[in-house]
Amino acid sequence: MPVDGDPFFPDLQDVYDEIGESLPDDCVFPRPGELADHAAEIERTGLFGPVSMRQFDWEETYDADGYIALLDTFSGHRMMEQWKRERLYREIRRRLAERSDGTLRRHWGAVLHVAHRLP
Q: Which of 12-33 are b and which e, b meaning 16 or more Cβ less than 10 Å from the residue's Cβ?
């Protein structure tokens, strides 16, 4: 999460804890530009030539319906018992309704590794 990331996510962890869906203690959220670089690992296979790596970071804004629709695509949320999802989603709606614009900002990051396959 970026230094100026939305505090919505750490603040919401109390609800995840309440419903028994806490994050593991060793869970890490890398900051922009700090995603894992697997170039050396890819090169060690001997199957690929020099590997270049590029990171992409962006932010999306979601209202309650949009964010809940996003969560419904995550396997961990899909596998939650119905009562847990209902409790979590109800709290998301309540907390976002308290915000002046009713939205949250979510940060995303991706890593692209590019290499040529060796003959």
A: eeebbeebebeeeeeeeeeebe
Q: From CA 15, how far away is CA 92, in angstroms rounded?
A: 9
Selection from 24, 55, 26, 57 nearest residue 38 by Cα: 55
d(CA 112, CA 104): 26
Average per-residue pLDDT for the chain: 93
Give 17-54 pLDDT, tens digit per residue.
Answer: 999 999 888 887 778 788 889 999 999 999 998 999 99
Say if CB 46 and CB 70 are below 8 A apart. no
CA distances to 2, 8, 93 from 26, in Å: 18, 20, 28
Residue reference for tokens 């915000």: 99
What length does the chain have? 119
CA dihedral 78, 83, 87, 93 (to 10 degrees): 60
